[in-house]
Amino acid sequence: MGVIAFILRIYRIDATSVDRAVTAMPANPPTEPMPVLAARPRWRDMFASLKVPNYRLYATGQIVSTTAQGMQRIAQDWIVLQLSGNVADVGITVALQFAPMLVFGLYGGVIADRYPKRRILQVTQTLSALLAGTMAVLIFTGSLQVWMIWCVALIGGFGTLVDNPARQSFVSEVVGPSLLRNALSLNSSTFQLGALIGPAIGGILLSAIGGGWSFGVNALACLGTVFALSRMDPSKLRPAPKAPRRKGQLREGLEYAARKDEILFTLIVLSSVALFVYTLPVLLTAFADHVYDVGSSGYGIFNALVALGALSGALLSNLRATVTLRTVVVGAMVLGVVQSLAGLAPQIAIFGVLLVGAGMSQLLYFIASNSLVQMSTNIAIRGRVMGVFVLIQLGGQSIGGPLMGWIVDSFGPHVGMTVSGVMPLLTASVAGLVLLKRRGQSVRTAFGARLWRRSGSPRAGR
């Protein structure tokens, strides 16, 4: 429970009460059934959730918003590198963007459980539009400096710590339980596709007409998301029960996450992936500028290759019948292997092919981990549990950004890329061995079997 214990220390929560609660509960508490797919879905059912009008609006806003944010991120990172000439400064930008999540992230989950999620998203997207518009003006007027980018990144981080838990848990309110599994997959696909395709488009714009336009496009996209949310039919939503104001709500979310293997071990593996893998844009700036000398256009191509792999991963993820701990652990191991090999690539062509594999494996892993946590969590506490998930996912990047920047500056991009793959590979391997031991299995007896899978259907936590 190292991840949960670390979070408890940050928030000064009494770990003794959590330990007592966890010890008093069975390792695998009873759960309430959640409708999931019992067989591999057909291709024609891949987009079943889009039959829901509210979800069509939500998904459209999601893909437009995340794509524009990816465009902005690529422009932001490259502009920082050009202004300062230091990869470590790019890492600092990433750290500031996600630092509020690391310090206050769990409170974002409490807010998501306490207030209407659609209203929260409208407010956070409006804030994002204002910040992006401000950056565009600073760039077009030629007055932008690195410290200004850092300030905007930090302010935007406070919006993110509320936006992400609300965004993640809002999906179940839009589609209901019968389509939740499909909606979670589509939602994760659109989110990650936007985050990966956006940088590819942003790289092209960056080399063609400059980075300011990416910020302007993001401002308009955020306002478009606000409009899409306002067009939803509130009577068709299925709002979760609001969490009342009382003490101990943070502790409740942590206790819940700590006592369920599906959530706890997913978070442990996620912590390593977030720390090392999700800082890939920092690494790609170094490969484009220092290794292959391909400039901003090459940087855009690298991101386009990652996006191509992500698109393939999105299609494959929607054909999964079930998601288990085995899916998450093995997926992280595969991701680690692919990214490690990219660090060892002897030439740019092989590096490009491995970037496609990295994008595919990254998206498959993220969708599996996100879906497993949500399907294992009761809807009344889902916002707080997803707050922990997002805290680790984005907070890890606030540490990983400057860490990977330092590794690249000190030891070179190849070492940085290799480390970014080896660390999650080791973490997932150790997590897998611990799970086998907890369940009385060995690697030899478990090989070829369906590891870590519960008998019967996957279930949602009580």
UniProtKB/TrEMBL annotation:
Coiled coil: none
UniProtKB keywords: Cell membrane, Membrane, Transmembrane, Transmembrane helix, Transport
Entry membrane topology: Multi-pass membrane protein
UniProt GO MF annotations: transmembrane transporter activity
Segments passing through the bilayer: 90-108, 120-140, 183-206, 263-287, 299-316, 323-342, 348-367, 388-408, 414-436
Family annotation (InterPro entries): MFS_dom (IPR020846), MFS_trans_sf (IPR036259), TM_effector (IPR010290)
Residue ranges of domain Major facilitator superfamily (MFS) profile in the record: 54-439
Main location: membrane
Pfam families, alphabetized: MFS_3
Membrane is among the record's keywords: yes
CDD domains on file: MFS_MefA_like (cd06173)
UniProt subcellular location: Cell membrane
GO CC annotation, single: plasma membrane
Record keyword Acyltransferase present: no
The protein's name in its UniProt record: MFS transporter
Organism: Gryllotalpicola protaetiae
